[in-house]
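Continuing from the previous page of notes. For each protein in this section, the sequence appears first, followed by its structure tokens. Read the first protein now.
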Amino acid sequence: MTIAKGKVVQLTYTLRDEQGDVLETNEGSAPIAYLHGYNGMMVGIEKALEGKAEGDSFSVTLPASETYGERQADAEQRVSVKHLQGAKVWKPGMVAVVNTDQGQRQVTVLKVGKFMVTVDTNHPLAGRELTFDLTVAGVRDATEEEVAHGHAHGAGGHHH
């Protein structure tokens, strides 16, 4: 079965920076799952996986525009320190998680005050060319419920 819109894809990945250093991986762990064609995965990854099948392994280098986006110069924002998740004491350069109307988002701490923090709302990997080593662990037809919800359920996917 090949990857196309309406298929649930399970995959393992290793994310590398411009120097080839590993930034993140799920190798040795359970594969992640997503519903192909429903905006649940980076556009560049979906394009690279289109037409691939279970067992396929390959690497793809993608521009920022197809992964975490270009860096936005005007992306600084002041927020209350109580909204930051991930640590008790904050220092410039640390990455925090904040809840937004669009869900959780990673931000980078720029300045720390007693009650307020200035953060960069660009994703920490925005503006970078990244390489993904991908292995397709499984491909199956999505259920009607998964299509209605717009995401994969079960192992590696969303749990309600």
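Done with the first. The second protein uses the same format. Note its length before scrolling.
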Amino acid sequence: MPPSPLEITQDFLSKAFDPALVADAADRLVAEDAEYVSLNFDNPPLQRLMPWAGASKGRQAFVYTFTNVMTRWNLEGFEYTDTLGDDRGAAVFGTFTLRSVRLGKAATSPFAVVSRVHDGRITYMQYMEDTFATALTFRSGGAWTIEADPDTDERIEV
């Protein structure tokens, strides 16, 4: 019996955060014309911090994303809290902890991954995380002043 879409997705994710393994995993498990959505569809300010953010096409987009993630952070933990799958795809939920290489700051974030699989290969993957938390691991000084509540003049310094 061939592996299920959930097993294929988990197999890829188990190797994605290792720069020595991600290219081989993509070759075996990702369709050549697959689409990858990282964090959002298009956000130029976020792409300045995380150049892989956005929608991209091709197997190399998967390799590019995870290779670059691992140049900026060290993965300290990655675990599943829930998984779902059927014959067309999978959803994987969990938490991870990353520590920024440059500043040594850590963040723990929930994540959600959805994938579509056809003929034993991932054809679409979307990866979501708490980008506010992970971006804060790059903050080296200064404050972000946030005004979110329309009913007050409260300013929050982060």
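What the second structure shows: The chain has one domain: 5-157. The longest helix spans residues 59-72. We return to this in next week's lecture.
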